[in-house]
Amino acid sequence: MFDNRPDRDAEIVFVGRSNVGKSTLMRELTGHKFETGGKPGVTRKPNHFDWASEDFMLTDLPGFGFMSGVGDEHREQIKTDIVHYIEDNAEKILLGVLVVDGKSVIDIIDRHSGEDEIPHDVEMFYFLQDVGIPVVVAVNKMDKVDDKDDRLNDLCDRLGLHPPWKQWQDTIAPITAKRGSIDSLNESVKEHLHDQKRDDLLKFFS
Ligand SMILES: Nc1nc2c(ncn2[C@@H]2O[C@H](COP(=O)(O)OP(=O)(O)OP(=O)(O)O)[C@@H](O)[C@H]2O)c(=O)[nH]1
């Protein structure tokens, strides 16, 4: 159970597999330094970036999927905790940002697609929407991707969004967090906040 949640009425959550660059992205967004790199699965509890005066926070949820040194059971528990956290706070969560690694996401999804297997990323994309939370997919590490359009079209296809990806620019945001290239994500987030009449929060996404 995650029990360190500040009491805020507006929140944006960040979810994604371990090692996709979520911590790097959070650091870019908030200017706040915290642990990144090294062993996958470093983040095991949510990190809340909190603006008490605005009644708003960004929440970095723990990475799911493979984590070195973490057994299957514990890994499942973390995923269950993430799902419960999102369900319990769905009314307060304005937006979910699903962070994926642009270089490996298609291979990982395809490897885990089967008759009775839904890949974590695809599952999370639908789950957030099922509980009424709009989703932006931040496709990170685009510096490592050569065939950008093809890759993003494939990702749309796997998520059930009709390609070409360019018609989904509110949903698909290619970024390179490590170099601070996150404009497309800022734009998508602002679009969603504007749609939800939360123009007061636009200033956090310059
Ligand atoms: N090439 C490239 N590497 C990146 C980018 N963003 C992050 N990385 C690298 O990816 C690795 C993982 O980054 P983290 O930010 O620690 O990833 P995380 O998703 O927070 O990982 P967990 O703590 O395991 O959940 C690090 O070596 C980063 O330097 C990027 O845009 N491009």
TrEMBL record:
Keywords: Cell cycle, Cell division, GTP-binding, Magnesium, Metal-binding, Nucleotide-binding, Septation. It holds the Pfam family MMR_HSR1. GO terms for biological process: cell division. PROSITE patterns: G_ENGB. Residues 8-195 form the EngB-type G domain. One of its GO terms (molecular function) is GTP binding. Its cofactor is Mg(2+). Necessary for normal cell division and for the maintenance of normal septation. Belongs to the TRAFAC class TrmE-Era-EngA-EngB-Septin-like GTPase superfamily. EngB GTPase family. This is Probable GTP-binding protein EngB. The gene is engB.
